[in-house]
Design goal:
The protein has 138 residues and is of the alpha+beta class. It has one domain. The chain has two helices and four strands; from the N terminus they run ααββββ. The protein has a four-stranded antiparallel beta sheet. A hairpin with a 4-residue loop joins β3 and β4. The longest helix is centred in the first third of the chain and has 51 residues. It is rod-shaped and about 110 Å long. The chain starts with 16 loop residues before the first helix and ends with a strand.
Length: 138
């Protein structure tokens, strides 16, 4: 008796083609249900990366202003220059420092308020901003 030609016994267990196709279909439906969640997570990750880069840029601009000296004219000249920066995702960010109003010489030494903001150039909105005081002696 040839084992390859014997009819299948009714007691054999296993998955048939229909069960496999149904399980593949159910897995596909579940994966499609999770797809929007993955898309939202990716968008949130990109937004958080842009926010982190913008925040670091605000802090860097403030630290650069503190490090260039205590002359009001020097601070004003630095505030007038800005250069665009790109975050790791390629988003163009532009830092902006509000113009600094120099006090009268009789009022020195004093502090001046410095407001720094970073704008996402693609979205056209301010992503991060902060205000600090810097000591001016001349």
């Amino acid at each position: 008796m040839n084992p390859y030609s014997a009819p299948a016994a009714a007691s054999e267990h296993g998955f048939g083609m229909v069960e496999i196709i149904v399980s593949m279909f159910l897995l596909t439906v579940m994966a499609l249900g999770l797809l929007p969640l993955f898309t939202q997570a990716l968008q949130a990750s990109i937004a958080n990366s842009t926010l982190a880069t913008a925040t670091q840029l605000v802090v860097r601009e403030m630290e650069d202003m503190r490090s260039i000296g205590a002359e009001c004219a020097t601070l004003s000249a630095f505030a007038a220059t800005s250069r665009p920066v790109f975050d790791p995702n390629g988003q163009p960010l532009k830092p902006r420092i509000e113009p600094i109003v120099c006090p009268a010489a009789a009022a020195l030494p004093t502090t001046v308020s410095v407001h720094v903001s970073v704008t996402d150039l693609r979205a056209g909105r301010v992503v991060a901003e902060a205000t600090t005081l810097i000591l001016v002696t001349g």
